[in-house]
Design a protein that fits this description.
The chain has 3 helices and 4 strands, in the order E-H-E-E-H-E-H. The chain has 89 residues and is α+β, with helices and mostly antiparallel strands.
């Protein structure tokens, strides 16, 4: 099963490391990553495989959100099927 992670906030050192360290700890594999900085703002979208996660989805979501908030970022994770349904025309 796959999920989409989005990260938005003021650019600062360590954003990718922050997210990837959490994912590694819960055994979630990064499949694809796209990030950019627009002026002073950092944006990132990640496609991840949550099949082998060793924590429940809700726990992972809460952990990512809390880590983001501690750095002034918005970090969200959505299951791919929900993300796809929300973005169909």
């Amino acid at each position: 099963m796959k999920a989409i992670i989005t990260v938005i906030g003021k650019d600062q050192v360590g954003i990718i490391a922050l997210v990837c360290n959490i994912l590694a700890e819960v055994n979630i594999n990064v499949l694809d990553i796209n990030q950019t900085t627009m002026r002073d703002y950092f944006t990132m979208i990640m496609l991840v495989d949550i099949t082998a996660a060793n924590k429940p989805f809700k726990d992972v979501s809460e952990r990512l959100e809390a880590a983001g908030e501690s750095k002034g970022l918005t970090v969200q994770i959505q299951r791919q099927e929900i993300f796809d349904s929300m973005h169909k025309i």
